[in-house]
Amino acid sequence: ALLEMKRESFFSEFRQEHRKIRDLLFDMITSFLEHDFEKSGALLESLDSLTGPHFRYEEEELYPALTEIFGEQYINKLLTDHDLAIARAKKLNSMIKAGSKEKDDITDCINTVRSILPHVSDCEGLSIMVEKLDDKVVDSICNSVEEARKANIPLIEWSETSRTRKPLQIKDKTY
Fold first, then answer.
1. Which of 56, 134, 142, 146, by CA, is between 20 and 30 Å from 173?
2. Which of 18-22, 50-54, 99-103 has the lowest mean pLDDT?
3. What is the DSSP letter of 154?
4. Phi, psi at residue 163, to the nearest 5°?
5. What is the mean pLDDT of residues 44-50?
6. H/E segment holding residue 78
7. What is the 3-class SS of 96-109, one letter each residue?
8. Please, which pLDDT band fits residue 169 given cuts at 50, 70 and 90?
9. Residues with Cβ within 8 Å of residue 156, at least 6 apart in sequence
10. What is the distance, to the nearest Å, from the Cα of residue 122 to the centroid of all Cα atoms in its chain?
11. pLDDT at residue 171 above 80?
């Protein structure tokens, strides 16, 4: 019964985290449309805090556990999506600090945020695959969630300090 509660809790929290991430991204788009860089920066900070532990447990336990279902190629795609999300968060941070109200820069910010959205919806669907995993594996994922949340390292910091994959850099414009 305890393991069943843990499983249900994981599915519920996983979905809630994706909703929060989605909503923060939508709010960022609105803040850019309103040229409110202060709000954009605060939203990016919230996103950085929320996604640090989230990406960590996904990469350390969830994705490896799903390799047997999806195979290496798709798991690599999910990891590459994370690489891109991290690089885009860094890019947004630079653009927000630059504070350019130029139409092209605002459009670039909005498009950068939008480019992260597909991973959020793709990732949300993984929970129906997790349901097929062995109880011990799900228990291990749940423990990883707890550890990642306890460590509470923001995404960009985690990506530069303890993440095993090396960060990608997006080199299209200097901000």
1. 56
2. 99-103
3. -
4. -70, 135
5. 97
6. helix 72-98
7. HHHCCCCHHHHHHH
8. low
9. 48, 52, 86, 89, 90, 93
10. 11
11. no
**Residue in 106, 77, 82, 109 with CA at minimum distance from that of residue 93:** 109
- Residue 155 CA to residue 174 CA, distance in Å, equals 22
CB contact at 8 A, 77 and 97: no
The pLDDT of residue 4 is: 82
- 8 A C-beta contact, residue 79 and residue 62: no
Cα–Cα dist 89/155, whole Å = 9
Q: For residues 32 and 102, is the Cβ–Cβ distance under 8 A?
A: no
172 vs 49: which has the higher pLDDT = 49
List C-alpha distances in Å: 62 to 110, 137, 175.
29, 9, 35
- What's residue 81's pLDDT? 94
pLDDT of residue 172: 54
The pLDDT of residue 166 is: 78
